[in-house]
Design a protein that fits this description.
about 325 residues, alpha+beta, SH3 type barrels, eight-stranded mixed β-sheet, 8 strands, rod-shaped
């Protein structure tokens, strides 16, 4: 449940739409001293350079520490954009009343919708300060530190950690292979030798003539290869871990804040608001050919800007 809204204490609070969706933050509060007595809040959306819209405080309430308006986000975001650092013109005020479907009126010239940021204005200030420059300083420094905007950026820091990448082992197994080795071998062979016997020689006297069959047997020998095997150590193998350092390029994305300078003069802001108001009227079909700002205001002929301040007279 929301509590009754005090329009003098909404500056700087988060602004929600009727459904509880965040829209932005509350800036200055503007008060219309005409018969409508309507309070308006300047809603600043987003970060630096975000769009600024006006929204009525009628029907708004405080929920926790947030300001909840009686309008949805789409209607507030589509409201005409206007420069809040001045008193609004009658045409700009009329565009706001028509956008939100309110029964406000406006005459020619300046309207009664203003804030204390304009020097000499009779409008109420939500900052409750005695001078017109104090709200301006508060608005400029809100969200800053000692008047400065802090620009930040992400820096990439790369570190290393020890992780397990795999296993290594030594495995011994047995295979069979063919080996050829040449060795010398000896064998015996038989050759026949014949010698003549001379008659009357001592050799002939020792030999007895035997006229009969006879055999002589000779045993022959040869070397045969004999293979034997023995196991002998031939090599020692072990594992040794070495650390190798190499350079690796690491890539990632980082966010960087940028600060741009924007300077929009009041004349261009007023023209921009008029263009948006005209486009809205043409889109909704509410503008008739030849219609002027005084026709939309619902005022009588001769009504001037001072009628918005609660006074009457002619220009």
């Amino acid at each position: 449940m929301g509590i009754t809204l005090d329009s003098t204490k909404v500056v700087g609070h988060k602004v929600l739409d009727v459904g509880g969706n965040k829209i932005g933050s509350a800036g200055m509060v503007y008060h219309d001293h005409t018969s409508s007595h309507q309070d308006w809040v300047m809603v600043k959306g987003g970060l630096l350079g975000g769009r600024t819209h006006f929204a009525p405080l009628s029907g708004a309430s405080m929920v926790a520490d947030d300001v909840r308006l009686a309008y949805d986000k789409a209607m507030i975001d589509s409201a005409p954009e206007m420069d809040g650092n001045r008193q609004l013109s009658a045409e700009e005020e009329l565009a706001l009343y028509q956008h939100y479907g309110l029964g406000g009126t406006a005459g020619n010239g300046s309207s009664g919708l203003g804030a204390a940021t304009v020097a000499g204005s009779t409008m109420a200030s939500t900052t409750a300060t005695a001078t017109a420059s104090a709200p301006t300083r508060a608005r400029e420094m809100r969200g800053t530190e000692n008047g400065y905007l802090t620009r930040s950026e992400e820096r990439m820091r790369v570190a290393t950690e020890r992780v397990e990448t795999g296993h290594a082992r030594l495995h011994k197994y047995v295979t069979t292979e063919q080996v050829n080795q040449t060795v010398p071998v000896t064998h015996e062979e038989v050759r026949v030798e014949r010698e003549q016997i001379v008659a009357g020689s001592p050799e002939a006297a020792r030999i007895t003539a035997d006229f009969a069959e006879a055999d002589q047997d000779v045993v022959l020998h040869a070397d045969r290869t004999v293979v034997s095997k023995e196991t002998v150590p031939v090599e020692r193998v072990r594992m040794r871990v070495e650390e190798v350092t190499e350079n690796v390029t690491v890539s990632d994305q980082v966010r960087v804040e940028h600060i741009d300078f924007e300077n929009e003069d009041p004349e261009s802001a007023t023209a921009k608001g008029a263009e948006m108001r005209t486009a809205t009227e043409m889109r909704t079909g509410t503008m008739k050919p030849g219609t002027t700002a005084s026709d939309w205001s619902g005022t009588k002929p001769g009504t001037t800007a001072r009628d918005w301040d609660g006074t009457s007279g002619t220009a």
